[in-house]
Specification:
With 287 residues, this protein is mainly alpha-helical. It has a single domain (33-286), classed as MetI-like (MetI-like fold). It is 68% helix and 0% strand. The protein is built from eleven helices and no strands. Helix 2 (77-113) runs parallel beside helix 11. The longest helix is centred in the first third of the chain and has 37 residues, at 77-113.
Length: 287
């Protein structure tokens, strides 16, 4: 009974895939490090508290005291830009994690058992998939309210069908292979077949989907924050800060939009490059 393995040996054999992987990993690791170190830098006095209102210094241009300047409320833009990475990562991990935990098992069950359960799950997932992801997230965020967990749930719903369809289709194509039939003949239970023999054969595309969904989740979070449906106003978040800074552009105040927008863009690009590198690695035809 042969079980397919992840192509770990191929991680850096493709020059293009390796370049994407390397650059994406560096950029993603940078933002992860920022999110982990920001609280320690604040407690040590090296970083301004992002919730402190410096009412005497609204819209102060970048200087030695405030590297990225201050916004209309007097918040330190540098501090809020760094702390926003932490909020983004929390939402991304929760949203993609929830969609993966729900989508992968449902896809395995649907593809393996087929029949009525397959038709019911396909109908539910196709219904969700036909709805525009951002609009669905906006509607759910409006109903659930603000907060990291609520926003993560709102973002994750539109990703579940993607994991479901990928895993379901691959399960349906693998379940009739000889090693599955041999496992059945030896008395393996459906649970054991799904967990031991099918899982590793059908989840090779999941890491790619995970990174691409993570990049998209950051943009959706930014959109929700821009609409005022994301996190609480005092919580640093790039989308909300961009919303408040939008009127500044007409008056020549550039720093309140540049730095949050640039940080969000770089984080999305890093995760997208990571996903593109994984695509090159897991899909040899792309090479």
């Amino acid at each position: 009974m042969t079980i397919l393995k992840f192509p770990y040996r191929d991680l850096f054999t493709s020059s293009l895939g390796g370049a994407f992987m390397g650059l994406g990993l560096v950029m993603t690791a940078l933002f992860v490090s920022i999110s982990l170190l920001s609280p320690f830098l604040q407690h040590s006095g090296l970083l301004q508290d992002p919730t402190d209102l410096l009412s005497n210094y609204p819209l102060e241009s970048p200087s030695a005291a405030h590297w990225f300047g201050t916004n209309i409320r007097g918040y330190d833009v540098f501090s809020r830009t760094l702390f926003s990475a932490s909020a983004a990562l929390k939402v991304v991990i929760l949203a993609t994690g929830l969609s993966l935990v729900l989508g992968v098992p449902l896809g395995l069950i649907s593809g393996y058992f087929g029949g009525r359960i397959d038709r019911i799950l396909l109908f539910i997932m196709d219904t969700i998939y036909t709805l525009p992801g951002l609009l669905l997230s906006v509607a759910l965020a409006f109903v659930l309210g603000q907060g990291i967990l609520n926003v993560a749930i709102a973002v994750s719903i539109s990703y579940i069908p993607q994991y479901f369809r990928v895993v379901r289709n691959q399960t349906a194509s693998v379940k009739n292979e000889m090693f599955i039939e041999a496992a059945k003949a030896l008395g393996a239970t459906p649970r054991r077949i799904l967990s031991k023999y099918l899982f590793l054969n059908v989840v090779q595309s999941v890491p790619v989907l995970f990174t691409l969904n993570a990049a998209d989740a950051i943009l959706v979070l930014g959109g929700l924050g821009f609409l005022g449906l994301g996190l609480a106003e005092e919580v640093p978040e790039w989308g909300h800060d961009l919303k408040e800074a939008l009127p500044d552009l007409s008056t020549g105040i550039w720093w309140t939009t540049l730095y949050p927008g640039l940080a969000m863009t770089l984080m999305v690009v890093g995760l997208s490059l990571l996903g593109e590198g994984l695509t090159e690695i897991f899909n040899p035809r792309r090479r």
